[in-house]
Amino acid sequence: MMEFLKHLYGVGIIFFYYLKWPILIGLPILYFGLDYKSNLVMNILWWYCFVLAIKDFIYLVILKKKY
User: Mind giving me the DSSP string for 3-36?
Assistant: First the structure.
């Protein structure tokens, strides 16, 4: 079970590392530009990516730390 959770955690890190900005920018384009219907799961995913982007901004600009 512990091995599965480690793999799941690693997949989550890689997923959000590469797809944070496309989701953050692309979802409003889909909703407002292309008239897609609102989706609760995608909205939650967008908010999570938004929080991650704010965290990155705080780390890089305000705290001047690098990962």
Answer: HHHHHHHHHHHHHHHHHHHHHHHHHHIIIIIS-P
Structure token pair of residue 55: 């965290």
d(CA 39, CA 62): 33
- All residue ranges of the chain with pLDDT < 70 are 66-67
Residue 10 CB partners (closer than 8 Å, separation 6+) = none
CA dist 26 and 49 (Å) reads 12
**pTM (whole model) above 0.70:** yes
By the 8 A CB rule, do 48 and 24 touch?
no
